[in-house]
């Protein structure tokens, strides 16, 4: 059964005019339910996450400042969010959703968090709409509990997974692979284990060529036993922040390559949703929904 982390708090309202589309976290499950891709039993609300698993990844002093709403104005500005108590609660809920989705992936082969993919959060700070890093927290949870030994992070959001790269820069148990816009945010890129920077305007054919060329050798050379997939849809040509030229079909093909590879190799995969900033919300929802449709077709 496809299990998907979702909570009403995911769609926490932001001030009018804020460019982060929180409404997608309600609209996406509604669309998937409406079309019959999933049923209500596929959705689960994440349980409370013990703080130990957060400070296992993040600096305890940073997490305390975040919880106590003591971040400086500069630190808040870098997150891109108007940090408040409910937003912090939402972020912790998202961390739990990804951890629990990893556990379901071990059971069913694949699982999702409708939120997550917060790859810009560093050990000791938040950036780029990310306060905590669910990818890193989930990977460390699996390693600490001996549920995985070698984790491959496949980050195909248009923005480099800089926080994840920083957190795991000296950890051989986690391999960070980021394919992203070369000239996009963040201005200063961290060093992932494998970075594939793409020029502005990269289209479907070139994108899939890069992905196929670099992904298959990772399965052979690194031999992961778990995958965390950051599948942001801000690679779309319609994305306001993306700068690539990927069609809706191309975005679906990207996901198909990753999910079929995981299924064929029998490697559990947890998918977290990442970014998407197209002007029309239906483009964001359709691109995200394709990932779930593919999961049902390929795994179940």
UniProtKB/TrEMBL annotation:
<keyword id="KW-0378">Hydrolase</keyword>
<dbReference type="GO" id="GO:0040029">
    <property type="term" value="P:epigenetic regulation of gene expression"/>
</dbReference>
<protein>
    <submittedName>
        <fullName>Deacetylase</fullName>
    </submittedName>
</protein>
<feature type="domain" description="Histone deacetylase">
    <location>
        <begin position="18"/>
        <end position="284"/>
    </location>
</feature>
<dbReference type="InterPro" id="IPR037138">
    <property type="entry name" value="His_deacetylse_dom_sf"/>
</dbReference>
<dbReference type="InterPro" id="IPR023801">
    <property type="entry name" value="His_deacetylse_dom"/>
</dbReference>
<dbReference type="GO" id="GO:0004407">
    <property type="term" value="F:histone deacetylase activity"/>
</dbReference>
<dbReference type="InterPro" id="IPR044150">
    <property type="entry name" value="HDAC_classIV"/>
</dbReference>
<comment type="similarity">
    <text>Belongs to the histone deacetylase family.</text>
</comment>
<dbReference type="InterPro" id="IPR000286">
    <property type="entry name" value="HDACs"/>
</dbReference>
<dbReference type="Pfam" id="PF00850">
    <property type="entry name" value="Hist_deacetyl"/>
</dbReference>
<dbReference type="InterPro" id="IPR023696">
    <property type="entry name" value="Ureohydrolase_dom_sf"/>
</dbReference>
<dbReference type="GO" id="GO:0016787">
    <property type="term" value="F:hydrolase activity"/>
</dbReference>
